[in-house]
Amino acid sequence: MVQDVARAGLSRERLIAAGAELADEEGFEQVTVSALARRFDVKVASLYSHLRNSQELRTGIALLALAELADRAADALAGRAGRDALTALADVYRDYAHEHPGRYAAAQLRLDPETAAASGGVRQAQLTRALLRGYDLPEPEQTHAVRLLGSVFYGYVSMELGGSFSHSSPGPEESWTRILDALDTLLRTWPTPSAPTPTGP
Amino acid sequence: MVQDVARAGLSRERLIAAGAELADEEGFEQVTVSALARRFDVKVASLYSHLRNSQELRTGIALLALAELADRAADALAGRAGRDALTALADVYRDYAHEHPGRYAAAQLRLDPETAAASGGVRQAQLTRALLRGYDLPEPEQTHAVRLLGSVFYGYVSMELGGSFSHSSPGPEESWTRILDALDTLLRTWPTPSAPTPTGP
DNA sequence: TGCATTTGCCTAAAGACTTTAGGCAACTTA
DNA sequence: TAAGTTGCCTAAAGTCTTTAGGCAAATGCA
Q1: Could you give the number of structural domains in chain B?
Q2: Which residues bind DNA (chains A, B) (predicted)?
Q3: pLDDT tens profile A24-47
Q4: Which residues in chain B have their CB less than 8 angstroms from residue A195's CB?
């Protein structure tokens, strides 16, 4: 019983990349060590030389997605400011989620603090903060605004992908534009608290 | 070998309620037919007389959470308007997520269209729309605003629960308040596409 | 009250995924 | 080309899901 014993050329990198493709094609829920082994036409146990466990596979995909998002965000913001930059950054998230729904779902995985701190998520926050420089907000407010923008981008895209908007009249595209209009306005006229936060002594 | 053959008194209702508790205690990921059977000290197969499959269990928990959220939202909005109503509704989501993280995670499950249409999610959207009556927005804009509020509530709470805000300086509580301030302002000065906000000449 | 039917939980079993242990062949290197 | 390392393999145990069929308790009816 002679077999083709050519090696499959597995590696952590390739496995995670293939896992990301699998996620986009079949859904992140379907990403499994077994499915991945099938895709490489290899026995399941073989993957465990490259991955500690299935969690590492999922986490790897999440980190890949977060890094890709940060890269795209950096690209989108280069040379832009104000409303233009806001739209560009927002569209990075929306477009990525549409192109790579499985990866986007992976990016929402809860990571343990150290892993999260070393992820592209941090860079994304920095980039959002950079975007806000065009809006001239006082420092304590800037953090709040970063969080607002993150929430809207993340929330809107998740809800749209989840079909929350697919059964009422204006298409999600139109709301997206109008919401970005509104956020732009809001950032230009950001209300400071009546009793301003103590910035220092 | 005489056994205690008293019946466990299982029912779809009780199973889903217990599943919701399990979700809050152990995490929605850990909600499994097997774990539930263990909790009732009953054999796994017994649950399949009450549940078509494990998906039905998860969906049931999601629908329970969506209904509970809608109930709380209705309660919170009763007799309130404007900024007061906005805060009350927003806190419904945030408080619920903190009290019942497993159920909240369940509520984010993608439901098929018919199920979603019959869920508490619809009522939540209606209630959000009712809240906006206090802000007097023209009709096409109202839908956009509903979606914005939904996105912010959902996005912010998810990110906070996911730990996205736990490693930067102002606590999530403070940002929440400031963001609600900002949204209140935004809704009062909502920019319409034809007549842009008088930001300047 | 006694009998028949229904109901509720059981045993058994098969299939899928995860993970570990240990083996052999194919590469690498000297 | 012999020795060592690496890469994928077989084997096996554990968990979860789901279906089929069985027995006894609960219920309904005369």
Answers
A1: 1
A2: 32-51
A3: 999 999 999 999 999 999 999 999
A4: none
Digit-coded pLDDT (tens) for B154-174: 999 999 999 999 888 899 999
Residue A2 maps to a domain: no
Cβ contact (<8 Å) for A168 and B143?
Answer: yes
- Beta-carbon separation of B121 and A193 below 8 A: no
CB contacts under 8 A, B 35-74 vs A, are none
Distance D8 C1' – A51 CA (angstroms): 14
Q: What is the CATH number of the domain that holds A130?
A: 1.10.357.10
Residues 95-114 of A with CB under 8 A from B: 108, 110, 113
In which domain, by residue range, is B107 found?
Answer: 62-188
| DSSP conformation letters of chain B | -----------HHHHHHHHHHHHHHH-GGG--HHHHHHHHTS-HHHHTTT-SSHHHHHHHHHHHHHHHHHHHHHHHHTT--HHHHHHHHHHHHHHHHHH-HHHHHHHTSPPPHHHHHTSHHHHHHHHHHHHHGGG---HHHHHHHHHHHHHHHHHHHHHHHTTTTTTSSS-HHHHHHHHHHHHHHHHHTPPPSSS------
The tens digit of pLDDT for each residue in A87-126 reads 999 999 999 999 999 999 999 999 999 999 999 999 999 9
Confirm whether B37 is domain-assigned: no
Check CB contact of B191 with chain A, cutoff 8 Å. yes
